[in-house]
Write a structure and sequence with these properties.
The strands form 5 sheets. Strands 6, 7, 8, 9, 10, 11, 12, 13, 14 and 15 form a 10-stranded mixed β-sheet that branches. This protein folds into 3 domains: 6-37, no CATH class; 68-74 and 223-302, Immunoglobulin-like; 82-221, Immunoglobulin-like (Sandwich). By secondary structure, the chain is mainly β. It is 5% helix and 38% strand. Strand 18 and strand 19 form a beta hairpin. It has helices at 82-87, 191-200; strands at 6-7, 13-19, 22-28, 36-37, 68-70, 100-105, 113-114, 118-124, 132-138, 141-150, 170-173, 179-182, 185-186, 202-209, 212-221, 227-229, 240-244, 251-259, 265-276, 282-286, 299-302.
Length: 314
């Protein structure tokens, strides 16, 4: 620390003068100059520590994993109904008279589609004896699928979540020239087209069979309720969990839970990973190999839901 400095100046002067040869001694005091004191500098303030930066998006969990969760009884999911869409006048009148193509959702028919919700491909006015080429366009990206009509009732089960985006064929069921519909699937396209679809907010469908052609454009909304579900598994042995509804940038932990004997509760066994929400509000988590103990117990995976929820078994 710097010390304050003080300086003092003073003294007297003796003057001697000669007059007519006689010496005269005179002593005269000279006023002392004032004392000058340098101001003391203020002590340097102690450096204030800079505040720690707030965690950025994806750096902290959106919520902790519950030590125990209550399992909700899963409701029987609704199935899209292509014939119902036409009868409810939810489509242009011309769709009931000529070739038509659209996607139908279980909740709102063709009016509003939402990522992760069940949908089905619907055709009308096409023959049941020839393949239909269906193209789905999102911006500049196009995806082509060969659709095979069958003149029979809709089969049970679900299509893979990447239907219409993965190149694999699809089957629609229904009589020749009438409404034909596929089995449902969760609308969870692969990552790149999913993000493109989220940003575009809509897609264009085109169906062609010989000289018959139909087109239809539809909008797609993003999931707005946090949740997690396991879609129909694609080809392979990987186990997937679709995490959705959280805000973009939020980090969502994924926990492995051991199911209780009664089947209505599950206890946290370990944290097996996390996902960071992209723009689409949909992320697919793949369970790491060896994450499930080989102890004969029953396990499921879940995310923070704040109440009874779904915990798909693994």
């Amino acid at each position: 620390m710097r010390q304050a400095g003080v300086w003092l100046v003073g003294g007297s002067v003796l003057l001697v003068a000669a007059c007519g040869g006689a010496a005269e001694r005179s002593s005269q005091s000279v006023p002392e100059p004032p004392v000058s004191v340098a101001p003391s500098p203020s002590p340097s303030p102690s450096p204030t520590p800079e505040p720690s930066p707030s965690p950025g998006p994806g750096e902290t969990d959106v919520a902790p994993l519950a030590a125990q969760i209550a399992l909700a009884v899963p409701a029987e999911p609704e199935r899209p109904d292509c014939a119902r869409d036409l009868s409810r006048d939810q489509l242009p009148p011309a769709y009931s008279e000529g070739p038509a193509v659209w996607l139908s959702s279980a909740a709102n028919g063709p009016v509003e589609l939402r990522l992760t919700e069940p949908v089905a491909l619907c055709l009308h006015g096409f023959r049941a004896d020839q393949e239909v080429a269906v193209t789905l366009a999102v911006g500049s990206r196009t995806f082509r699928t060969g659709v095979l009509p069958r003149a029979e009732a809709v089969a049970e089960g679900e299509e893979p979540a990447e239907a219409l985006f993965g190149g694999a064929g699809l089957v629609v069921y229904g009589e020749d020239g009438a409404v034909q519909g596929s089995r449902p699937w969760r609308l969870v396209p692969p990552n790149v087209p999913r993000e493109a679809l989220a940003k575009a907010g809509s897609f264009q469908l085109t169906a062609q069979q010989g000289t018959l052609t139909a087109q239809h454009g539809q909008g797609v909304a993003l999931p707005d309720h946090p949740g997690a579900d396991a879609p129909a598994a694609p080809v392979g042995t990987a186990r997937h969990l679709v995490v959705s509804g959280y805000r973009p940038g939020e980090m969502v932990p994924v926990g492995l839970y051991r199911l209780g004997d009664a089947g209505d509760r599950a206890d946290l066994a370990s944290r097996v990973g996390e996902v960071v929400m992209p723009v689409s509000r949909v992320a697919v988590f793949t369970l790491p190999a060896g994450a499930v103990p080989a102890d004969g117990g029953a396990y499921c995976v879940a995310v923070p839901l704040g109440g009874p929820g779904n915990c798909p078994k693994v």
